[in-house]
Write a structure and sequence with these properties.
The complex is a heterodimer of chains A (89) and B (271). Chain A has 89 residues and is α+β, with helices and mostly antiparallel strands. Helices cover 46% and strands 18% of the residues of chain A. An 8-stranded mixed beta sheet of chain B has the order 3-4-2-5-1-6-7-8, with helices on both faces. The chains are: A alpha+beta (89), B alpha/beta (271).
Chain lengths: 89, 271
């Protein structure tokens, strides 16, 4: 720190401000993840997927499995569709 | 009615055990029958901070597994009339900590007339930490004004809101309090450290207190006496304020401002 800086203060950006900006983003992201973690949209998603796929292929409701899995720090949305034999054209 | 308070943080080394020890001591000094329980199975340390490590015979896991009764495992504090310590096991696996076991101990403590049970959580978000917060009525979230600690505190708040009994049973949620430790008003003034207002704005829970960075914390742990006993130390006074505020008293925040040295002092040096 030079003597000028000592008297007049540094002109460098303050690191605390940087920390706050970074944390604001990280925490907002974390909180959205947590609300996705409630999984309450899954049944609706499953129903709509069945509707869409049924337009093209004849399938049963049980042939579609939708689930959210937690892997490390992120969640994976897994959709499994069992195609009926001999129907895919 | 016994109140269960968890002291938690997510991140390690931020001052959970220091806070648990001083907070429990402070409640006992106010005349409340208080017990502080170490949930860090495998890495116990509360006994050292409380200065009762040589009197540990039985521990939390012994009680849960029926190898000792609660009275045998509870250690009465040397300095405080109404204060007890329940140490964690040093040798067992943390899987020995069962929800039923913890629930039974809390029920027994209620029958014994305890006013407060302070649960000192281990770091992390695994079994021990979840067990410590499961039965909480209130939570003290200990945070350093530093990025990783603040992010982890936010994570632990999410876990409180999803895994505590109160959340699962749809009762009134766990009452959350923020305690900021290792605070340096000087560094905040210089723009090098997040201010307590910034931290509170980020985490959005009520602030219970700010504990300044203080040499007396290490001295107290060296001596095995909770820092709240260290007369004249800023950390001790800040913890006493925390206890007072928790009990509903109003105390202004202390040790959060720093007076800049004048121009002459900056030119000619000095402290």
């Amino acid at each position: 720190m030079s003597w000028l800086e000592k008297i007049f203060g540094s002109t460098q950006p303050k690191s605390a401000q940087l920390a706050k900006e970074r944390l604001t983003l990280v925490i907002a992201h974390q909180r959205t993840d947590a609300s996705i973690g409630q999984h309450d949209f899954l049944p609706a998603l499953q129903k709509e997927l069945i509707d869409v796929i049924s337009k093209y292929v004849k399938i049963n409701a049980e042939d579609i499995k939708v689930q959210l899995e937690k892997k490390g720090n992120y969640e994976v949305l897994e959709v499994n569709i069992v195609m009926p034999e001999g129907q895919n054209k | 009615m016994t109140q269960v308070i968890v002291v938690t943080s997510g991140k390690g080394g931020v001052g959970k055990t220091t806070t648990s020890a001083s907070f429990a001591t402070g409640l006992a000094l106010r005349g409340f029958k208080t017990i502080v329980i170490d949930f860090d199975v495998g890495l116990r340390n509360l006994d050292l901070i409380m200065g009762c490590e040589r009197r540990v015979v039985y521990d939390l896991i012994n009680v849960i597994q029926g190898e000792a009764n609660l009275h045998q495992a509870m250690i009465k504090d040397k300095h405080c009339e109404n204060l007890f310590v329940l140490p964690a096991s040093q040798t067992r696996d943390k899987d020995a900590l069962t929800e039923e076991g913890v629930e039974k101990i809390l029920k027994d403590l209620e029958h014994m007339g305890f006013d407060y049970v302070v649960c000192d959580s281990p770091a992390g978000i695994e079994r021990g930490a979840v067990m410590a917060l499961t039965f909480a009525d209130e939570a003290l979230v200990v945070t350093n004004p530093e990025v990783s600690s603040i992010r982890d505190s936010d994570r632990i708040l999410g876990i409180l809101q999803s895994k505590s009994r109160r959340a699962k049973e749809g009762r009134e949620s766990v009452k959350e309090h923020l305690i900021i430790t290792r605070y340096s008003a000087k560094r905040v003034e210089e723009g090098e450290m997040l201010s307590y207002k910034d931290v509170q704005e980020l985490l959005r829970i009520p602030l219970l207190g700010v504990i300044p960075e203080s040499e007396s914390v290490l001295q107290a742990s060296n001596a095995g006496s909770p820092v709240i006993h260290s007369k004249g130390s800023e950390a001790a006074e800040a913890y006493a304020d925390v206890v007072g505020r928790f009990l509903g008293e109003e105390h202004p925040m202390r040790f959060v401002s720093y007076e800049k040295p004048g121009l002459l002092k900056r030119i000619f040096g000095g402290a």
